[in-house]
Design brief:
7 helices, QueC, two-stranded antiparallel ribbon, zinc, five-stranded parallel beta sheet, alpha/beta, about 10% strand, EC 6.3.4.20, single chain, Rossmann fold, about 250 residues
Length: about 250
């Protein structure tokens, strides 16, 4: 069924009717890379962030400076970057039970998932993104979920994205497409993708301006960016950086 098609492969020219995209944009490495790719592909790109009481709420503060720097450093993208939207999802904090919304130590749960898992978060994100895309006349929803380098979150899986795309198409009676550019690549390849899109300038932007750390720490600038250096998000980002650097040295 065409409604279940999910374009999560490498970058390619969009279909003629898909000219405007909504990027789920947290201000982190992954969503910034996805935003850069969308700006290279689509005529109009809007962004959507969610304030759900996350401990690392500093990501909400860096979002604007990332957008501003993308427009300044890549003038060819500036005319394509449209409105930014922020929606409140305090209900996720009210449900509780996650180390992303409560001041508890990072740990593994009995079900094998880390307690950074916020049940239903990405399902809610995509549902609201679909509603906003409907109102804004946007036909593509871009999200940086990944099944290669991830913590096992079930709402990041490719099957989940396909199911959500089908549900949105049926429930909204619109031909929306969910794109997951990072689904099958690891963090080293994500750094490479950023470099392919915007060279050293985009890599530097991601290093200095984006935020991924679950602790919300922006006191120390590492070679891979700001962060505590010990949380799961920092670990993934740092390991990907060092793998990418090692691959570049080997290639040279």
């Amino acid at each position: 069924m065409r409604a279940m098609q999910n374009d999560s492969s490498s970058p390619q020219a969009p279909a003629a009717r898909h000219t405007a995209a909504l990027v789920l944009f947290s201000g982190g490495q992954d969503s910034t890379t996805c935003l850069a790719q969308a700006l290279s592909l689509y005529e109009r790109v809007e962004t959507l962030g969610f304030d759900y009481g996350q401990r690392h709420s500093v990501e909400m503060q860096v979002r604007q400076q990332v957008r501003e720097r993308l427009s300044r450093d890549f003038p060819q993208w500036a005319p394509r970057l449209g409105d930014d939207h922020v929606l409140s999802l305090d209900v996720l904090q009210q449900i509780g039970g996650s180390s992303l919304t409560e001041d508890v130590a990072f740990a593994m749960q009995a079900d094998g998932l880390p307690n950074t898992f916020v049940p239903g978060r990405n399902l809610l994100f995509l549902t609201l993104a679909g509603a906003l895309a409907y109102r804004r006349g946007l036909s593509v929803i871009v999200t940086g979920v990944c099944e290669t380098d991830y913590s096992g979150y079930p709402d990041c899986r490719d099957d989940t994205m396909k199911a959500m795309q089908l549900a949105l198409n049926l429930g909204l009676e619109r031909r929306l497409r969910i794109e997951t550019p990072l689904m099958w690549i690891d963090k080293a390849q994500t750094w490479q993708m950023a470099h392919d899109l915007g060279g050293d300038t985009l890599v530097d932007l991601i290093q200095r301006d984006t935020h991924t750390c679950y602790q919300g720490t922006r006191e120390t600038l590492h070679d891979w960016g700001y962060g505590c250096g010990t949380c799961p998000a920092c670990d993934l980002r740092a390991r990907g950086w060092h793998q990418w650097q090692a691959q570049r040295e080997t290639a040279n």
